[in-house]
# Entry
Amino acid sequence: MKSTSESLGDTAAYLQNIRERVGQIIVGQDVVVERTIIALLTSGHLLLEGMPGLAKTLLVNTISKALHLDFRRVQFTIDLLPSDILGSEILDEKSGEFRTHKGPIFTNLLLTDEINRAAPKVQGALLESMQERKVTLGNETFSLPTPFLVIATQNPIEQSGTFELPEAQLDRFMLCHRLSYPTPEEEEEILRRNLKLGVEKKGEGAVARTEFDLVTDDAVGTPQDLIDAMEATHKIHVSEVLLKHVVDIVERTRQHPDLELGCSPRAGISLLKASRARALIHGRNYAIPEDLFALAEDVCLHRIRLSYEALAEGKTPQGILQQILNDSIS
Amino acid sequence: MIRLLLFILLSLHAHGSKLSFERSSPLGLPTTITDYYIPGSKVEVIPRKNSDSSLVIRILQTKPAADGFRYDLEVYGLDPGTHKLSDFLRYVDTKSPISHLPATFQITTQYPLETLPKPSELETVSPEKLGGYKKLVIALGLFWLVILLLIIFYRKKQIADFTAPPPPPSLHEKLHVLVTNASRGNLTDHERANLERLVLGHWKEKIPALEKLPPARALVQLRAHPEASPLILKLEEWLHAPKTTLSQNDISTLLIPFRK
# Structure
């Protein structure tokens, strides 16, 4: 029987191995990897906002392979229907009976690219399933596989032909991380690695290899390790003082004169859950203020809305949130 | 001789009959007199200066005659009675009245004078006061100036009387109170949370490199800072760890620098 500290060490090492495996394929993006693991451990969902070509698909693919999880990707477009994601009942001509066809949502990791390109009813159907972790097809209700994590992406610059997710829908995402471009050093490393990819021969032909070809099917640990990590997350100690910190941050967003919409109670819950997962990733058995402040932007920013006056004055949600966090420690 | 006498008699008759005549006309209706001979230079109607004139005469046409002119006149009677034409005509050149004109004009009425309707009296409406804007503007300007001076002096007086509330306690003042209570071991969870936030804020303020950093990055650096990290890490352990090895004395010792 392992002691608590040994168990914590094993879990931290397991999570570190996942990060290293991802690091072999993807250069930089440590924070995104951390956020994805946090979402996975807490059964939350992750929204990534960033430019195209930042290896979002590769990242999710690598993590799913490392964790031995099923992975699907759906490109959201304007003509997508809810049944294209959830599935539908199809009439089998031979038997004359309806047969259930499960959609791509029946997976462990679902990457929904450009979620804001789909019509609101498709977004609504997906987000409802995300919340309930169930899908009803015809008269039958199916539970989604466990673990189930949706990683959605949206492009911040292309506004034409998009349906912006309303605040209520955004609130269902535990974290919203804004991806940034790699640093010049990371960019050089990306190019160096790309130069070494070479060509893969297949039968009589050959094809240039991509980063996806580097992703191996070898899993890091076992499915039980992931379950243990999820259980360990829920054992991370949260002090009364930390609870006060969470309430203080959430309360400040609600009281701020420049904010029309502050953080919901769900934001507070998400902040606490994510802080526990981050503490585990960093090998601690208790969460500290650093966890809260590190995650505050990803948890709170997509849940707050500026007032018209603040917008007219050229203020930004990022600026206001930083001001709130600064005020909380002064 | 007989011819000459006859001519004189005829001309005298003609002359006398033309100068002296009596005409009548109903009140208010125009009457035309044609070829009325007036000797001497050309005459004109004396311009009316008020509404009291009894007749209104208009000269329609003037035709030259032997020693004078023949006139076609249009006459309106405004007052009943007999009126002399000479009162309404004068010579153009000398502007002198024609005193020798015997002709009269009678204005008749069907009903007795007393029963005639009289024009109603006009109401005299005095026009609004015109002009005087300059005075009005000056008066308003002076009024505005008085009000302005009152506001300035009244506000100055108010500011002078105003006793400013004490400024909110500074970070270090708040910290001092909490640290003193912490050393006595009687801090609530809320005060502990405040203490931690203030200690973090103190270090963020104290280290210039961290002041401009976002709190998330500043805290990461604080936990690795050679000067700040011993306190920060022990404070974290005291406040957040499920089991702490720190005693009350350790905490009091840690917080000594903040008591000064």
Chain B has nine helices and eight strands. The longest strand of chain B covers residues 30-39. Confidence is low (pLDDT under 50) at residues 10-17 of chain B.
